[in-house]
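Summary for the steering committee. One of the milestones for this cycle was to obtain a three-dimensional model of the protein with norvaline bound, which we needed before selecting residues for the alanine scan. The sequence and ligand used are listed below.
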Amino acid sequence: MTGTPRHFLNLDDFTGGELRGMLELARELKTGLAEGKRPQLLKDKVLAMIFERQSTRTRVSFDVGMRQLGGETLMLSGQEMQLAREETLEDTARVMSRYVDAIMIRILSHQDLLDLAGAATVPVINGLTRRAHPCQVMADVMTFEEHRGNIRGAKIAWVGDSNNVLASWVNAAELFGCSLSIAVPEDYWPEKDLMGDIQNAGDAVRLITDPHEAVRDADLVITDTWVSMGDTDAAERRRDLKPYRVDTNLMAGASKDALFMHCLPAHRGDEVTDEVIDGPQSVVFDEAENRLHAQKAILCWAFGVGNL
Ligand code: CP
Ligand code: NVA
């Protein structure tokens, strides 16, 4: 690839219009696939996928997405690479850029992602860091809009821990023009970077401690695991976050037709009850499916194909 590579690292690197363009392509690809259309937009391209941590949805959806677009993937575990023997991210990026057409990486340190992207000469896609999970939230916005139409002006509630998925939702609220009420216990409030993003978002995003207040009249209620990859204090978290469990009582305070989302994997009985996640308001499996379609559009954007 010549010129500056098109990385997909964080939602706030984009305008709302650019992200909307990707979502429109995602919708077209999804509709087309249901009619048996598989445009070979990435024929013969190779995506390397590096996983420093576990994944089900991200690895399978990127793999299948590349195949549907005519490309191929290489699945690499960080532990099996020389990265685990302290080869630098930069050297790894330089070498891999000579072999493959794009890199998707899941790595806890956001700085490591940025270092890799800074040295890569092919597109790099963020498959989750401790700081952000932008591919997930693209699928979430797509899912909301499939069920409820344009997300502009919608009231979104986040309940539970403060983490990477929330951080990308803070960016999405600003970029897509919706409001976001976040309920997190004070001891778990975000660190500097995310706190700064919340403050900069102005009135559209508010951080409070009361989950009932956060979900009042919400069009969408979201939660996520209380113990993210890299967290070491699981027992304390499960104790402290218990009042933030999303159950039918909490959902009853949201708008009558509010949707429920969770990026999965879910810890049933902790952050969400079976009744809610398996109930009529839950769209968690549509959300998981849309990882595939949203990421195909992100890949097309990164390669500059599909009119993006
Ligand atoms: N939601 C998500 O990223 O799932 P995986 O960890 O299974 O990839
Ligand atoms: N917040 C979770 C998301 C998993 C997809 C984690 O970082 O583990």
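Key point for the committee: The chain has a mean pLDDT of 97.
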